[in-house]
Specification:
With about 180 residues, this protein is mainly alpha-helical. It contains six helices and two strands; from the N terminus they run H-H-H-E-E-H-H-H.
Amino acid sequence: MKISNVDEYANDLLNKGKRFYEKAKQESNDIAISAYFQSSIIFSIMSLETTIFSISDELCKRQDLTLLEKSLLLEKDVSFDNGVFSLTDKLKMSKLIDKIDFLLLRFNSKVDKANSLWWNHLKEGIRLRNELIHPKNVTEITLKQVENTILSVLKCTDVIYRAVYKKGYPHYNRKLTSVYDF
């Protein structure tokens, strides 16, 4: 499968995460189940990061965003030279959750994240991914946590699409079903 753009890549990553989830449900070996769960979490959150990066990049090219907003979305530092503020190529990390917060507030202030189950599941999925990527302890992952992470990534992506593009995420209705059969 040839992937031609970042949005297709994000969808590909999510479908791989879903497929690892499907494979874990078919597996009886605990080591394999654990590996599939870990892969599913990592690929699902990577998909969301890729989507947020793509949307951020597009918005910074076409929208009237402030320098600080662009700095947050593009993860670039701001400098002040000769009386002018500008973006630099110097990396200034920002949290994925902060970017999502910003996009939702900037483009749809009506989203009630505080009372949304998907929001809590998303934060849990990001925490799990961070623990897997930067381990300090052994992280055990359950089937329910994987399901919640995938569904919260889908819901978050759909909510952001509706806020920014005024239409839903085109792959939202596939839920936990992957397009792959590897």
